[in-house]
Amino acid sequence: MKKYQGLSILIVSLFISTVSAQRKPISARVDSLMKLMTLEEKIGQINQYSGREATGPVTRKQTYQLNDIRSGKVGSMLNVHGVKNTREVQAAALQSRLKIPLLFGMDIIHGYKTIFPIPLAEAASWDLDAIRLSAHIAAREAAAAGLHWTFAPMVDIGRDPRWGRVMEGAGEDVFLGSAIAKARVYGFQGDRLGGTDAVMACAKHFAAYGAVAAGRDYNDVDMSERLLWDTYLPPFKAAADAGVATFMNSFSTLNGIPATGNSDLQRHILKGKWNYKGFVVSDWGSIGEMVEWGYASDSSDAALKAITAGCDMDMQSEAYKRHLARLIKEGKADVKLLDDAVRRVLYKKFELGLFDDPYRFCNESREQETLSNPQHKLIARDIARKSIVLLKNEEKVLPVSAKVQNIAVIGPLVKSKRDLEGSWIPRSDTSLVVSLFEGIKGKIAPGSNLMYAKGCSIADTSQADFQEAINLAKQADVIIMALGESYSMSGEAKSRTDIHIPGQQEALFEAIEATGKPVVVVLMAGRPLIFNKVARKASAIVYAWWLGAEAGNAIAGVLFGDYNPSGKLPVTFPRSIGQIPISYTQYNTGKPVKSPDDIKYKSAYIDSPNSPQYAFGHGLSYTKFSYSGLKLSKSSISANETSELSFTLTNTGEIAGEEVAQLYLQDPVASVVRPLKELKDFRKVSLKPGESKVVRFTITKDYLSFFNRHLEWVAEPGNFKLMIGAASDDIKLETALTLVQ
Ligand code: NOJ
Fold first, then answer.
1. 550 and 444, same structural domain?
2. Deepest of 125, 601, 738, 739, by most Cβ within 10 A of its Cβ?
3. Could you identify the atom of ligand 1 that is nearest to the CA of residue 79?
4. Confidence of residue 8 (pLDDT cuts 50, 70, 90)
5. Is pTM, for the whole model, over 0.85?
6. pLDDT for residue 10 is more than 70
7. Same domain, 384 and 486
8. What is d(CA 538, CA 568) in angstroms, rounded to the nearest whole number?
9. Can you give the residue range of the structural domain that contains 659?
10. Catalytic residue among 173, 230, 283, 301
């Protein structure tokens, strides 16, 4: 026995000493390593534990985890960060027989130390370079703090604002969502995996989690195959095409099968059709949750179903660790499934360079330097201001002149800091956050009088403090109100049945508005809120989401005209909860409403217009843009031809600005019914006053294609309507294109 032990130690040390020197292809290095691994060691590689800062229910002690790490029973940790901590835990892994380094993962959703706007807010910028840069800075900071992997981007399409996780995604649209998915993957991962300023990204939650029934988190999803392919899968495909290193499955079911145990999704689509080579991690405990769902009889059955379905790594449920070896020995699970999962995980460890140096992400001075880089704050401010959407601006009440004498700032979010960071941040540090109050203070002229009253708390039931605010409002020339949600009202497990502005805030607005003074309302939230009274009566509305550490400066910059707002809504804002789920991609129906006065026997509500409060793509500027001269180089093309669509965009106002020109398409007659409008492309164009630019799109067959009834991606010959708009409900130009056989 001793002799064999000695021999195996020799082989292992030979392997370890040569593995870094070898320059064999990674797959060969993975194979060599796997030959040395016991069944238990292999299973260890696909077992992931959380550190102390849990992002879900925690069940085990740290000492237990460290012992497991030392004996090679853990392949990855989440929620351990900071060079000191990751170094310490990595050292435990290097005491294991094969010294296979751990992967450290964490939810770096919108920044590590520098907090950027929440992902939904950034999507409102429609600025792919800025979004990519934001992800890159987040990755750079995370990598400097010892992390290898972020559980982002969330690429779930969100059309139900009751679902708290809409804040984490890019909104409702397939095209925009796919473009942003790519930008974020490139941003997080850099040019290639292995750079010490980049981390592995993770496309989540595969798939269709955004469509949970009734907007209730963790609920079931029931969906047609076509809706899945047409709308919910494309951003995942885009992430896979961009080389995303990992996928995460979902807490939800899809048509009766939990996503975690769903082989149609993971084996057939992802690893089959899409030939995906990265690995799939479960969501937190989602393997074990298949028992609660009633899809597995116990944790062992859940382990068998998950590994069979293609879930490679077990986050937190320990189902693989406890049962997989026995399942394999009993011949119930095929060892090839395990080998495939382990191979995928090890491949990433090699790609990250961890076998060359397990501590290559553990450099204290890099950590210090990166986390104190002053540039990051400026970049955060820039993307924050780009994410702001000006919803309304009557009689040009905005921008406010810095010289205005008396300004009243009112509302529960005026001085708030923590709420501006939003949910999903690794650690809150409000000393780094600029509140709206501080931002405004920094903008106004020295002699101006800045008055403040809170008026009420976010979720107040009382109006006791209204009077103080009203008195203040009466003395003001202009009133700025900051209303919205607290950071804990949107995010995971934060679904709401009522998405009106919480508490007494809208009543406070009405009381202030009754003074007859111009009221500018700044709304901060993680989701589209409903605020019909504000929409009707406020002089101006600025949607500021949760903009992160630089929120106050960014918002004040817009309010006082240092920055001309350019954001557009990435998601529809409903008038009522009854309209949800909602998106601009409506169908005509067989009984379309042609005039709002004629809704008898029409696809309408008898108590509300069909239209939303604010449409997808809506967003105003302090300048005006005109759209003219639409041309199509060919009005008729065959499948292998293209046609160039062009038009002229002019800034007809007096200040420089940026416009997001949107290209929509309709296929009016097709073998399956198509929506009235689908976004196919867009350009964000910057124009000086009086300046014109020609904007071009090359229309290819791909723009005209959709999934037919056999789920084939086809473009059917016939006529298409092409529309150019400033918003989905503000079409400026249109033309027709014919696809010939
Ligand atoms: C549960 C969430 O659904 C997922 O998005 C997250 O990455 C994990 N917890 C880990 O924190």
1. yes
2. 125
3. 11
4. low
5. yes
6. no
7. yes
8. 19
9. 625-739
10. 283
